[in-house]
Amino acid sequence: MSNKNFYITTPIYYPSAKLHIGHAYCTTIADSVARFHRLAGDNVMFLTGSDEHGQKIQEKAEEAGITPIAYVDNIVAGFQNLWKMLNISNDDFVRTTQERHEKVVQEVFRRIYDKGDIYLGSYKGLYCTPCESYWTELQLDENGCCPDCGRPVKEVAEEAYFFKMSRYADRLLKYIDDNPEFIQPVSRRNEMVNFIKQGLEDLCISRTSFDWGVPVPINNKHVIYVWFDALSNYLTPIGFLDNPERFSQFWPADVHLVGKEIVRFHSIIWPCILMALDLPLPKQIYGHGWLVVDGTKMSKSLGNVVDPVALIEKYGPDAIRYFLLREINLGQDGNFSELALVQRINSDLANDLGNLLHRTISMVKKYQGGQVMASEGRSEIDESLINDAMAAVKAFDEGMSTMEISIAIKQVWSFISRANKYIDETGPWALAKDETKKQELANVMYNLVESLRIISGLIFPFMPVTAAKVWQQLNMAGTIEELRLDDISVWGKTPAGLMLGEAQQLFPRIELEGDKQAEKAQAAKQAAEAKAAKKARREAQKAMEAAKAAARAAEENK
Ligand code: ME8
Asked: Separation of 112 CA from ligand 1 center, angstroms?
């Protein structure tokens, strides 16, 4: 636990099309980490945005017969709507077409130029337009195509500015070596080290073949390469140009969270730009894996692109957030399937969490008129529950601090199961029947409400709406946003005398077509078993009677 400044970013997404579930995955991870750090008391800056320049966008706008800015305005409004629907708590949203950003990019260019690390040359290269990337012959895939997207590359030649990236290769390798946390997970770090060891070439950072970009400040025939433009976004909203105090609070960033295919840009090009600017490097570049759908890569041609807006409308934001964070180990690829989502909703959310809350509130209503009584004395079972609660908070803290999100979330759910088991172990319905067990019952009720108070804090980074609902149903004072990790790291902050609110269902169970069929099959199986058992009983009876008759006959024949 700490109280520090914490700066986390997502990639800024291309507004070339609507965002899909893979983009929502990345932003949800960043949001849960940002919310966790606010819970821990940190001063958080969480940034996302849109990467609006470049040839691809210009071409798309031309196809649509509108200006590039009209084209991106429309799509970016969709991004912002999606983040609102998902309850993304970003503190700023940077658009690379904003004046504040264009000024930053030009200043970055100017400073590096003045330093002598940018020169005018001529570029001949193999360019992938959809990825906005140049490749060398050696880097192409086995079909001679772009190694990232597999599409054909084209040869281009143009006068261009170059950034002397090559001169930073050794310093970068040393930095990666000295800072094992810099590129995560380790597999990505090894990939990057191998890449840099092959030698870095100077980077072409301007284009003359189109004009949808930030003009080079010393030569407006050129626009600045879209990746040079995009990476600089991380400096824009934290006062790089105009607020040195704020800048020193948030730079260097704590985590740039990015998809695995753009780790290269963030852990090679970006650090070299920063070294040229004499700025410290970000503390961590974390490369997350890719989401596939029902085992297949999403693609427009396959028609399997999952629209997060439709999913949120159907299942609500928290169920989607929970699924993405729980189901996929950060750093590895993961699978999205609607069936698996529904199963998680039914088992983890409706059953484990929903039932714990509902059972607890209903019992406090039934046995104590809705009022939580002071707890006095602890049984062994109570002690074990309390220890498990404190251990869950610690494991959650450690997991979230080290970006082991699915591990953290699993720990929280294992405590939820533990609390459900506590009800069965203590049997409040039996305690309620015994006048001498009133205090024991009050203790059990208190411990359950207190467990739920802690659980609402633990689920807040993953499911903010649900956490607020739990908080409200328990009728705790203040808002869940004001809760801090310190408040849930100690047992016993639920005030005695608290009147609980109304129990409301958190997640309705979703009927699965498969469930209905399974139920029918189960009923048929039971009926068949019962019939077989009856037949067996009848036959056994007959055999017994026959044996008795035979015995009688034998007796008579004696
Ligand atoms: O790369 N699963 O933008 P972008 C998980 N503008 N993540 C996925 C995914 C999937 N199926 N598909 C895409 C860009 N992503 C640049 C970034 S940052 C200075 C500039 C992730 O819109 C992908 O891995 O193509 C990447 O991190 C992010 O979406 C943005 O992709």
From this structure: 27
